[in-house]
Amino acid sequence: MDMPNFKDVLQKLSVFKNNLSLLVPMIIALVSVLLFIPTQLMSSKLKKDVEQKSINNGLRKIKNLETSAVSSQQYEMEAERQKLHAADANEVVKLAMQTTQRELLSYDIFPAPDPNGFSALIFQKFGENFRGGIDTMISNVKAGDSPTDAEIQRGLENSSSTSRMRGRGLSDMMPMSRDRNYGGMGLYGGGGSMMLGSINRMIIDEMCKDRAKTISVYINPSNIAGYDYWADYKYDIKQEDAIEDCFYHQLAYWIIEDIFQTIDKTNSGYDNILTSPVKRFMGISFTMGLKARRGGGGVFRAIRGRGGRSQQNQNKTEEADRPRYVRDESDGLSESCTGRYCSQEESKEGIDVTHFNFSVIVSAKSILPFMKELCSVKEHQFRGYPDPNDPVQTFQPVQTFKHNQITILESKMGSINPNDMTHRYYRYGDDPVVSLDLVCEYVFDIEGYYKIMPQPVLDTLAGKDEENR
């Protein structure tokens, strides 16, 4: 292909030299052509992007809005949702009430005895039911106590042939001394030193082990607050005070039930004390804390009186180790880490709180499992509270409710000396054991038991009878 002659091109373009007016339009036309082509290309791409992205996305959003638009019945659906929320709240309130709806030891006292058929025997009957209930709890956990001094002495006397073989009489070998811990004749001399021969020590040890093999936990009912108090109860106080006394011991009974249920559950599956986790229940108190516990043996004494009662009833009050409501810090047995106290308003709503202190001997590896079980959910049976005006006392069908009312506020663990007088006839097995002291709080739902609260108690809580506080 021949290349154009450059001179010929210049000659052809020379026409613009003579006609400059034509040069400018030509340049503008040429630039317009050059700009038009990419503009068209960009416009086509932009149109395509708008169709694919903006318009299509917008159409999809519109279609989605069509399917998710608020229904004309939306208000009805919201009302139903709120109704379900209300039902949940009501169920929580109902469950809280059920924790405190418990069986009573007597349905003739709460909220008040029938004035037409009133008899002082109803208080004595209450005490019998209280002690009988404790005895049943002890039996249910297969509990018993260690051999007494009298039992040990009889056992040695039955083995007197051993002493005769050594050429001595039993009386020459057994110097007796008064044992204040047990309130009877002990088999140990001054300073707790053993005065018997090695054979008699072996006999005593075997007797103690044989007892441990027949029971699951050591429990002496006299170490349970209220048990001895109701042993020889006499109605020699005002009716209002007697009713109040029964009510607070009813609260104590519910708390004791939970402790025994904890022991039973923890020891489930074990044959006897030598292998069980909970070895011994030392005692429970509602009127003293850890610092007031006597010595290291776990023998409880109610040294913290309620005070303020009339002189007529002061002695009886000091004898009663019973719960008291914790309305502020001064009423508690320990600092409240939960910050829970009794509701101050005179109302059917809110909570009541009481503290208690108890001690057990447990295997070292069972400390945390026992504490966890103590604070776990428990079950109880409830038949409803009959109408006090109903002479037949009609009950509802038995229902199973759940409760979880215990919180541990303070714990203290310590080693024990098996040679100490407190443990001399007790055998705990081969595993290491410790004493575990706990201060706990117990919460009652007011609405759950307001129906049975006696008027004297309500008056006391309302400050209408401060001399009884």
Structure notes:
The chain has helices at residues 6-18, 20-68, 74-100, 121-140, 149-158, 160-165, 170-173, 198-214, 239-266, 311-319, 367-374, 446-449, 455-461, and strands at 143-144, 177-179, 184-186, 217-219, 278-285, 351-363, 378-382, 399-403, 406-414, 433-445. The chain has 469 residues and is an alpha+beta fold. A hairpin with a 4-residue loop joins strand 2 and strand 3 (184-186).
Order of helices and strands: HHHHEHHHEEHEHEHEHEEEEHH
Number of strands: 10
Unreliable runs:
165-195, 289-315
Calculate the terminal CA-CA distance, rounded to whole Å. Answer: 127 Å
Largest sheet: 6 strands, mixed
Number of helices: 13
- Strand numbers in spatial order across the main sheet: 1-4-5-6-10-9
Instruction: Estimate the strand proportion.
Output: 5-15%
Walk me through the topology.
Layout: H1 6-18, H2 20-68, H3 74-100, H4 121-140, E1 143-144, H5 149-158, H6 160-165, H7 170-173, E2 177-179, E3 184-186, H8 198-214, E4 217-219, H9 239-266, E5 278-285, H10 311-319, E6 351-363, H11 367-374, E7 378-382, E8 399-403, E9 406-414, E10 433-445, H12 446-449, H13 455-461
Parallel strand pairs: 1-4, 4-5
Antiparallel strand pairs: 2-3, 5-6, 6-10, 7-8, 9-10
